[in-house]
Amino acid sequence: MDNILKYNDFIATVKYSEEDEAFIGRIEGIDSVVSFEGQSVEELKSAFREAVESYLDFCRRKGITETQKSYTGRFNVRINSSLHRRAAIMAKQRGKTLNAFVKESIERSLEYV
Fold it and tell me: Global pTM?
């Protein structure tokens, strides 16, 4: 299992809790904290779907139309200094800013998703 579940336009991260002997999941990319759990993979998947539907119902009742987290378009990336240097040099060689180079690199990577 790759520790990610997908349902509709939502994703969740999953961890196994040895203490609880259960899979624990959390919906990512929303402003609320929504978690769920299951003893088996099937229970976990079912609980995830139920959690998403419950979250969407909550949003409808509260008049919330944007159910996904809004992103500003700005984020910090921490990489080692060698990679930072190589990226900066490559950006210069291509006549681009480091931001433009990183943006294009991310766009290319996401073409295959």
Answer: 0.70
